[in-house]
Amino acid sequence: ALPAPAPALAAVAPLPVPQDDQQLGRLREELALMRQMIEREMNRLTDERLRGSPVRAQALELMDDYGFDAGLTRDVAMQIPADTELHKARGLMLGLLSKRLPIAPLDPLQVGGVIALVGPTGAGKTTT
Question: What is the dihedral of CA 56, 62, 66, 72, to 10 degrees?
Fold first, then answer.
């Protein structure tokens, strides 16, 4: 007796493939625009909450002047209590920033090895 024939495989529709690089480019542009819209709206909501607190606004401006990432500045500024006195805000801001810095468990200078300072021109690598 002959073995039974293998069952026929159902035809699967091929996945649509972009017709050309133009379609893919348009899709990327549209995604980038959507991302910008979402970021703008999130920033607007955060800015509204910051406007009611001069101490948060001052911290935001100071960190922005120092060149910190906008997302980080907003996160840190929002952690500062709105009723904090202005003269205490800078110290609190620095404390909140220091908690976000990763620290090596061992002092690399005690262990030995090579330490590389990397950064753009004028960042203070030589001075450090």
Answer: 0
